[in-house]
Structure formats: C-alpha cells, structure tokens
Write a structure and sequence with these properties.
It is a single chain. The protein contains one helix and 18 strands. The chain has 303 residues and is mainly β. The chain folds into two domains: 131 residues, Sandwich (Immunoglobulin-like); 117 residues. Strands 1-2-5-4-3-6-7 form a seven-stranded antiparallel sheet, with no helix packed on it. Strands 8, 9, 10, 14, 15 and 17 form a six-stranded antiparallel sheet that branches. Strands 16-11-18 form a three-stranded antiparallel sheet, with no helix packed on it. The longest helix has 23 residues. The chain starts with 8 loop residues before the first helix and ends with a strand. Bound molecules: calcium ion (3 copies). The site of one calcium ion has 6 residues, from loops.
C-alpha cells in the first residue's frame, strides 16, 4: 500500500483540488469534442408519369398549314424538381420505332417529329423539397401528317414519347392520340370560257382549274355545278363538260351535273411539295341562247 505524506493539511487540500480540477477538465474536454459525419445521397432517376398527347383526343389537322399539338407530363425526381436537367419529346406514328425517331436527322413531316422542346409549367417547381414539376411539349404538325384513324395505318396511332434526365439517368413515358384523316382541297377561284357564238362550243380549246390536295390523304374531288344565268336567261348545267385531261368538246369530257361526281384526277397524299392536278373544261352555247354575260358556280368537294 502506497502512502502519500503531506507536510500539512493545506498541502493535502491543494493536491486534492489539483486532481479534482484535472478530472473535471478531462470530462469537459470529452463533452466538446467534434465528430465528423458523412453520408452519400444516391441519385434517384427522374420518373415521367401521366403523359397525355392532345389530351388523349384525336388530332384534327389544319388544311394546307400546320397545327400545333401538345403533350404534357409530370416529372418527379426525389432529389428535387430543380435537379431535373433536360426534358424533351419525340412525336411519331407508332409504326416508326422509337429508335428511328429520336434525333433531328430522322425527322419526317409525315410520321416523325423528333427533339420536340418541352418547358416547365410556370409555378409547378418551387425548389427545396418540391419533387414534381409539370412539363408541356409542343410542335407544329404538317397538314399531311399520316392519319391513323383509317386507311393504311388504321391499326396504328401516334405517340408522344417524353424523356426526362437529371444528368445521371434518363427515363421516359408516352401518351397516345390518333391523327384524323383530313380530306381537303383548294381550287382555282374562277374560270372564264371567253366569248362564244350561239350554236358553237369550245371544240379543242379547254379552260383549266387547278386542284391542290391540302389534306393528308389521297383525294379525288367530286365535281358538281349549277346552271349559268344572265338575268332571267339560263345556260343549263349540262352544257359544261370536264375531264382529267384536255379533250375535244364533241367527242370527250363528262357533262357537268348538279350531282357530285368523281373528277378522276386522283391526287396523291402530299409528303412535302404541293400535290396538284388539273381539270379541263369546255362549254356549248346552244342555238337560241340570248346574248349576255352568264355566270354560275361549280363546286369541288374533297373526297
Ligand atoms: Ca435525380
Ligand atoms: Ca411541384
Ligand atoms: Ca388507329
């Protein structure tokens, strides 16, 4: 047994105090020590959900021009909506593989609109703990985009594929919509047969109307007409004849009637350049026709 001898009681108190302070200092030092912490937050891939294309409704194109169509989606990223870096879309007829319509070079106005721009809907991503943002993607479809409601591609539909990336992972989702068949045409506004004597016809001289296919389908217009009139006088409708090529009045052409009848000019579906066809016309002015300026209306109906 070890004995510590102190010269006095005071020395013993001082020594005890030093030991006690040391113990207190040691305890206090441990309580204030720092522990460094670390954790790795993994990346969660963005999730594309609720994709709608034209709100799910069939798309009706606009003749001879474009129509802007929209796809929408909610994109969620558990790392926060503000970490969603890139959202884009491809719109295509679904007979075209996704891999065949995801770069600009694969664009085809009949069936593939790649790299469609998507923008975040204002106010849907507030940052911080907000993980979801809404996006809208839009582009202009040409009037001759392939129809999928009937015809060659009736078994197909159009799809909007929306892809979202966060710089690490990219995922996608899609929505569907049919594109309706659009039968439409433009035709020359007026036609003048010139001046003819009563008891004569236009013989081998034809007037021409030019028909343009302004829809997304093959099209053969139906033609009908009215009597031409000049005041109380009439030149009956059947005196006009038409054909899909030039003709001589006495031997060719189809007599015009009030009943719509195929013109037989069979216009192809446009794929870019305007598709046009001509209808040739002639007229007969019977004996007994009163002089005057006769006018009427011939109608072309897309079919
Ligand atoms: Ca993420
Ligand atoms: Ca949000
Ligand atoms: Ca279809």
């Amino acid at each position: 047994m070890t004995k510590v001898l102190f010269k006095s009681r005071i020395e013993a108190i001082i020594a005890s105090s030093i030991i006690l302070v040391g113990v207190i200092a040691f305890v206090a030092n441990v309580a204030a020590d720092a522990v460094s912490t670390s954790v790795t937050v993994s990346n969660a891939a963005p999730v594309v959900s609720g994709v709608t294309f034209n709100s799910g409704a069939a798309i009706t194109l606009t003749e001879n021009t474009t129509r802007t169509v929209y796809a929408t989606s909610t994109v969620t990223d558990a790392n926060g909506c503000s970490t969603i870096a890139a959202v884009s879309a491809d719109f295509h007829r679904n007979g075209i593989a996704t891999s065949s319509c995801n770069t600009i070079g694969q664009a085809n106005n009949s069936n593939c609109y790649p790299a469609v721009t998507c923008t975040v809907v204002s106010g849907t991503c507030t940052g911080g703990s907000d993980t979801a943002a809404d996006y809208v993607c839009s582009t202009a479809l040409q009037y001759y985009a392939d129809p999928t409601d009937s015809g060659t591609y009736a078994a197909q539909t159009w799809t909007a594929d929306i892809a979202a990336g966060d710089g690490v992972a990219t995922t996608s989702g899609s929505g569907l919509a049919e594109v309706n068949t659009l039968k439409a045409l433009d035709v020359t506004a007026s036609m003048n047969y010139g001046t003819l004597a009563a008891g004569s016809n236009t013989a081998a001289v034809n007037s021409t109307t030019t028909v343009t296919n302004t829809g997304n389908s093959t099209m053969d217009p139906l033609i009908s007409g009215t009597d031409m009139t000049s005041g109380i006088n009439t030149l009956t409708v059947g005196n006009q004849k038409y054909a899909s090529s030039t003709f001589t009045y006495a031997t060719g052409g189809t007599a015009l009637s009030t009943t719509p009848t195929a013109a037989a000019i069979n216009l192809a579906k446009p794929t870019g350049a305007a598709v046009t066809g001509n209808v040739s016309w002639g007229i007969n002015v019977p004996n007994g026709t009163v002089p005057g300026s006769y006018s009427g209306t011939n109608t072309f109906t897309a079919n």
